Every structure is written in C-alpha cells, then in structure tokens.
Amino acid sequence: xxxxxxxxxxxxxxxxxxxxxxxxxxxxxxxxxxxxxxxxxxxxxxxxxxxxxxxxxxxxxxxxxxxxxxxxxxxxxxxxxxxxxxxxxxxxxxxxxxxxxxxxxxxxxxxxxxxxxxxxxxxxxxxxxxxxxxxxxxxxxxxxxxxxxxxxxxxxxxxxxxxxxxxxxxxxxxxxxxxxxxxxxxxxxxxxxxxxxxxxxxxxxxxxxxxxxxxxxxxxxxxxxxxxxxxxxxxxxxxxxxxxxxxxxxxxxxxxxxxxxxxxxxxxxxxxxxxxxxxxxxxxxxxxxx
Length: 290
What we know:
By secondary structure, the protein is an alpha/beta fold. The chain is 40% helix and 17% strand. The protein has 9 helices and 12 strands. Helix 1 (12-20) links the parallel strand 1 and strand 2 (27-31). Helix 3 runs parallel beside helix 4 (126-141) and helix 7 crosses helix 9 (272-289). The longest helix is centred in the N-terminal third of the chain and has 21 residues, at 73-93.
C-alpha cells in the first residue's frame, strides 16, 4: 500500500484532503500536523520525513499570514522557502512524488490578462517573495516535482474570507469590500480533488500548474455572490484598496490561466458560484450540527 503524506493537514486544504482520503482507501494516509512534520524546524525536518517514508508528499503546509509576514519575514522564509527545499531534496533522493502548493502572490498584479505558468514573477510582499523562493528551491532540487499555484483559497474549515463575510453579512447593516483586486477564488475541496486526480493519473507530468475556480471577479463581487446565495440583506459597498490599507500590498490582478492543467490532466474546473454554493451549504450544515 503506497503512503501519502499531507503536510499542514490541519489547514484548509489539508482538512479537505482528510475528508477526501476516505474515497482513496488504496493509500495509507499520514495527515501530519506541525509536530509530525515541522516546517519551522529545519534541523529535524529531514529526519521526520525519513521516519514517515512516504511515496507521495502533498505539501500543503505554509506560512500564510500575509500581513504578519512583513515583520516575521525570517519565519516566513524558513517555512515557505527553506523547508520546501529540504522536502524537494528528500523527494528527489527517495524517488517520492511531490506536489507543492504555491500562490498567485508570486505575481505583481500589473497584468490585464489571465496569467500563465510562464508569466513573469515579481512579488510585491514578503509572503509572495517567500513562496516564489520556495518554488525556485523546489525546482532546483527536484525537476520531477509538481507545483500548483492557486488563489483566494476558502473552505468549510478554518478561518477564511468566505466564513468571515458570511458572518458579517448577518451581523452588520453595511460593509465595504475592496473592488479593485481581481482574480478568482478557489474552493479547497476542488483543489484537493485535483491533487488526487494527479496522484492517481496514468502519467506524472512535472512542472508548474495553475488552479483556481472559473470566473473573473473582485473581492466585492465575491461578497455579492455570498450575499445572494445566503439571502442576506446587509448593504455591500465597493471600496478602493487605498481605503483599506494593509501592511502587505496585494496584487491588483492575479487571475490564473488554467489551460495547462486542463490539457495535461483532463481536469474539469467548476465555476466559482457552483463551488461557493457547495461550501456555504457545508458551513451551514456544520453550524447546525454544533
């Protein structure tokens, strides 16, 4: 029985892979938290991997606090860059198949067309720079690795934009949401399924791939979709990014072109509204179960 190691298993994507693992009983699953696979402790990381001895590594663990990274740049670099290099080298040395998750924040946001995997990378914040450094370390150590860039990830699990907005739409009379940052959201359950489609595919095709749900929207339009699906009456206003300053800059445009992953693996990418409905239904179900 081949063994799949999931790092960051308590995060949004890791939690979705845990849910999905029941559909793949042909694998032994190691759903590792930060104590089992310590991305922030490079001195023990390789030994931990040696003990687990996986056949596949799905590296979902990351430092994702975008604004905090501006002051915790060393920690972000260790987790998002240096640890990735160690994992990639271990995978290379032991012929382990590696899927590493990256981000649209490797781009500067100045494009006006959907970004391909070959588009120029120019991060505008520390988080994006650490993730790009991780990509480069991964590719340098292991040319057989797969990197998936994704964007605006949300899930029924953990803290995320969708859950926060759903709560605010019920608690407040009005909210303002940034309307000049354009991209597409990613339902973590869809990304998890895509990762398993790759794991179980006939052919392993290394390289960088993009994945997000279909649709080109702003955060403001995303909230309008949440509002419509939930039937909330809160007044939602669009505001410019300049009215909502954050420690870290965000790319203004980071829509990802998914043509490559569709062609290579025959991936079917759902529209963001379809996936959003599924997630909101799951969130409501979870709340009623409490």
